[in-house]
C-alpha cells in the first residue's frame, strides 16, 4: 500500500513539475514575443548572388529607416511607423533589386510569424511567434536576416558580433530582469532555462 502511495505521489510531483516548467516557458516566451518587433528579410535562394542581393536590400532599407525615428517610442508606435512606410520599403527593395540586374518580385507585410531560435550579435531569442516586418524576395526560400526594430537594434553595427552597451540598456528598459538574462547571459543556468523555453515553444 505504501509503495503504491509513493508511486502516486511521485507521479503527481512529476506532473506538477512539468506544469510549472511549461507555465514558466510559456510566460517567458509570450513576454518576449510581446516585447519585440522584428525586421525579417528572406533571400530568393541560398546562392551567393541571392544572399548578396538580400544584404544590399537590407542595407538600403536600414539606411532609409535611419531617417525615421525608432528611438524613444513604444512597440505599437514602431509598428505604426513601419506600417506608414510600407510603400516606401517596397519601392526601395524593388529599386535595389532592379539596379542589381534582377527582376524578383517583393512581398512586404507586417504580421505575427513563427521564428526558430535566432542569434543576433550577442543576443539570442528563443523560438516562438513574434510580430515582424517581413520582406520576401522572389521565392523567399533562402537564408534570412533579422534584427529588432523594437527595441531598436537594427541600427547597430554587428560586424564585431557584440551588441553595444547603449543598445543593451534599451533592452533592459523594455524587458524584465529574467528575460534580459535569458537572451544575453551565457551561464549554464541561463542556457538550461533557454533550452526549456525552446522545448515548450510550439510551432
Gyration radius from CA atoms, angstroms: 20 Å
Largest sheet: 4 strands, mixed
Count of helical regions: 7
pLDDT < 50 runs, ≥5 residues: none
Oligomer state of the chains in this structure: single chain
What's the number of structural domains? 1
Please give a structural write-up.
- The chain has 203 residues and is α+β, with helices and mostly antiparallel strands.
- The protein has one domain.
- The chain has helices at residues 2-35, 48-65, 75-84, 86-99, 165-174, 177-184, 188-199, and strands at 37-42, 106-115, 118-120, 123-125, 128-137, 144-150.
- A four-stranded mixed β-sheet has the order 2-5-1-6. Strands 3-4 form a two-stranded antiparallel ribbon.
- A hairpin with a 2-residue loop joins strand 3 and strand 4.
Which secondary structure elements does this structure contain, and how are they paired or packed?
Elements: H1 2-35, E1 37-42, H2 48-65, H3 75-84, H4 86-99, E2 106-115, E3 118-120, E4 123-125, E5 128-137, E6 144-150, H5 165-174, H6 177-184, H7 188-199
Parallel strand pairs: 1-5
Antiparallel strand pairs: 1-6, 2-5, 3-4
Helix pairs in contact: 1-7, 2-4
Task: Write out key terms for the chains shown.
52% helix, 203 residues, 6 strands, elongated, four-stranded mixed beta sheet, 7 helices
Amino acid at each position: 500500500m505504501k509503495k503504491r502511495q509513493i508511486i502516486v505521489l511521485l507521479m503527481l510531483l512529476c506532473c506538477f513539475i512539468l506544469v510549472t516548467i511549461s507555465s514558466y516557458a510559456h510566460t517567458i516566451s509570450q513576454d518576449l514575443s510581446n516585447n519585440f518587433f522584428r525586421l525579417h528579410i528572406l533571400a530568393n535562394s541560398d546562392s551567393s548572388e541571392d544572399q548578396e542581393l538580400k544584404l544590399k536590400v537590407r542595407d538600403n532599407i536600414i539606411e532609409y529607416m535611419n531617417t525615421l525615428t525608432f528611438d524613444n517610442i513604444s512597440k505599437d508606435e514602431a509598428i505604426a511607423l513601419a506600417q506608414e512606410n510600407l510603400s516606401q520599403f517596397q519601392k526601395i527593395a524593388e529599386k535595389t533589386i532592379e539596379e542589381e540586374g534582377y527582376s524578383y518580385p517583393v512581398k512586404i507585410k507586417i504580421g505575427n510569424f513563427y521564428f526558430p531560435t535566432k542569434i543576433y550579435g550577442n543576443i539570442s531569442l528563443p523560438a516562438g511567434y513574434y510580430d515582424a516586418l517581413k520582406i520576401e524576395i522572389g521565392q523567399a526560400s533562402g537564408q534570412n536576416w533579422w534584427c529588432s526594430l523594437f527595441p531598436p537594434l537594427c541600427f547597430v553595427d554587428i560586424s564585431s558580433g557584440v551588441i553595444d552597451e547603449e543598445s543593451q540598456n534599451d533592452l533592459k528598459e523594455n524587458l524584465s530582469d529574467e528575460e534580459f538574462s535569458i537572451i544575453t547571459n551565457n551561464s549554464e543556468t541561463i542556457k538550461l532555462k533557454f533550452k526549456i523555453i525552446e522545448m515548450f515553444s510550439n510551432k
